[in-house]
Write a structure and sequence with these properties.
The complex is a heterodimer of chains A (185) and B (298).
Chain A (H helix, E strand, L loop, with lengths): L5 H6 L1 H8 L2 E3 L10 H5 L11 E3 L7 E5 L4 H13 L5 E5 L2 H4 L21 E3 L6 H16 L5 H7 L1 H12 L15
Parallel strand pairs in A: 1-2, 3-4, 4-5
Helix pairs in contact in A: 2-6
Chain B lengths: L1 H32 L9 H11 L7 H20 L14 H7 L2 H12 L3 H32 L4 H10 L9 H16 L10 H4 L10 H25 L6 H21 L5 H8 L2 H17 L1
The chains are: A alpha/beta (185), B mainly alpha (298).
Chain lengths: 185, 298
């Protein structure tokens, strides 16, 4: 922490503490998770920036989606995302969650992840290097500063359409809606 | 009277600051062991500010009350512990009172966790209670030999007796008990060889699995208090307390960093290996210490 940040801390403690304590949840989809162990261990030390992995969605506020998303995984992703407490940030890692990547014509994967849950930022590449995670974290800091990392707000406002997309992909969902869906709007 | 009130207010605050700094120091030192740079020293404070600002969901009234009850239990234990010359309530209590009240914190944390109906919590609670069954036996033997050796149950009298003669850790029959206490210290603190109840990779951090937001922040504070209490008890009983708080905290730092060395190099025991270890070597040493104390004092 720099000394010239003290005024920022006093002005907006919630924003600053969200920036410097990003707890990422252990959630492995696809092959991108292989880049995370080097990031949190001795070579690229993510704990310098306050980024550590935690075991449960209740304690986490950063959701890294690392690799392709099959239909079966999407169910777990939505449930995990809805269990996290606000404010929460999502980052899609690799080209597969962006547009399907090399699985673009697979019958069993999701092409565009941001139809189903809101994404705050993308890391493109197949595979991205571990440094790309740090670039993403620093970029997420600027987004939080400008209040543009508002995925959880977009999810709340447009929950009806997100829920409709989820039902289109998964069939009937066995959990109740997270936010009330009023039929008029 | 006024001084006593000020001491009652100031000693939990001091304990909280020291405990949270210890949590940060633990992360920094563990990072250095891994050849990493590590987080800033105040990273737990940053995490706690973030957690207090997050939204959170309660799982029932016991979920709220249990965590507050455990925090209250820990604060009361801190009041009974002398550190330096600050000993607000320690003249009225003793080791027996501390032994009783120390049980409140883990039990009410288990009560609170039980409300969040998650199977990982049940596993975590059962492991924690089995582990406490493991370390309570040597702990009771150690405290019994200390009380027998100094012929008092007052912890202030124990500290004063050590300051007039030698530390208990280097006096003849009691060094066995001191070694035994140090061997079970990782189990009491729940650090690495004995972190079965909060294993993140096996049971999703066990008892803490449903805690988030301000509940997790309160649980972190409670953890800091537990850290402070157990290390401070070791310093009081075996390292002769201290004349002023600064010396006391330096002694606590030495004990805690030695505990972290154990934490850094050992993998995790399974629960039955932990019980087998705890009931073998520390219990044997503590029992030997008790018998030697009885023979010497005769």
């Amino acid at each position: 922490m720099d000394r010239n940040q003290i005024m920022k801390w006093l002005k907006a403690p919630a924003k600053m503490s969200n920036k410097y304590s990003l707890h990422a949840i252990y959630f492995c989809t696809g092959c991108g998770i292989i880049e995370v162990p080097p990031v949190i261990t001795a070579r690229w030390d993510a704990e310098r920036f306050g980024v550590i992995p935690v075991a449960t969605p209740r304690q986490a506020n950063l959701f890294l989606i690392t690799g392709y998303v099959s239909v079966k995984t999407l169910r777990a992703i939505i449930r995990t995302y809805e269990q996290m407490y606000e404010p929460k940030y999502t980052v899609g890692f690799g080209s597969c969650p962006i547009n399907g990547g090399m699985y673009w014509d697979s019958y069993n994967t999701i092409k565009h992840l941001d139809k189903y849950i809101p994404i705050d930022g993308w890391i493109a590449g197949c595979m991205p290097r571990p440094e790309a995670i740090f670039i993403a974290v620093v970029h997420l800091w600027t987004l939080i500063d400008k209040e543009k990392a508002n995925g959880y707000i977009r999810y709340r406002e447009n929950y009806k359409s997100y829920r409709r997309n989820q039902e289109l992909a998964l069939g009937k969902l066995e959990w109740p809606p997270l936010y009330p869906i009023n039929s008029s709007s | 009277m006024v001084i006593k009130v000020i001491q009652i207010i100031i000693s939990p605050v001091l304990a909280l600051i020291v405990g949270v700094l210890f949590l940060g120091l633990a992360r920094k030192i563990m990072a250095r062991f891994h050849w990493r740079y590590g987080p800033p020293l105040i990273q737990p404070v940053i995490d706690m500010i973030r957690l207090f600002y997050q939204k959170s969901v309660s799982h029932g009234s016991m979920f709220d009350l249990g965590i507050i009850l455990s925090l209250a239990g820990s604060i009361v234990v801190v009041l009974f512990l002398p550190f330096g010359k600050i000993c607000p309530l320690s003249s009225s209590g003793g080791l027996l009172v501390i032994l009783y009240i120390m049980l409140i914190a883990p039990l009410s944390l288990a009560l609170s966790g039980g409300q969040g109906a998650n199977p990982n919590i049940s596993i975590g609670i059962s492991r924690k209670l089995i582990l406490s069954l493991g370390y309570e036996v040597p702990l009771l033997l150690v405290l019994l030999s200390v009380m027998t050796h100094y012929k008092t149950i007052s912890i202030v009298a124990v500290v004063n007796a050590q300051q007039s003669t030698d530390w208990a850790l280097i006096s003849f029959p009691l060094f066995l008990s001191g070694i035994s206490y140090f061997l079970i210290l990782p189990a009491i603190l729940g650090i690495r060889p004995f972190d079965v109840s909060s294993a993140p990779q096996e049971i999703s951090s066990g008892l803490m699995v449903e805690y988030g937001g301000k509940y997790l922040a309160l649980a972190t504070i409670e953890h800091a208090f537990v850290l402070f209490i157990n290390v401070a008890l070791f310093v009081n009983l075996f390292l002769g307390g201290a004349a002023n708080p600064i010396t006391f905290f330096v002694k606590m730092l030495v004990v805690f960093v030695l505990g972290l060395f154990v934490n850094a190099v050992f993998p995790r025991f399974r629960i039955e290996q932990a019980i087998k270890y705890l009931w073998k070597w520390p219990t044997l040493l503590a029992f030997l210490g008790l018998i030697m104390t009885l023979i010497v004092r005769r």
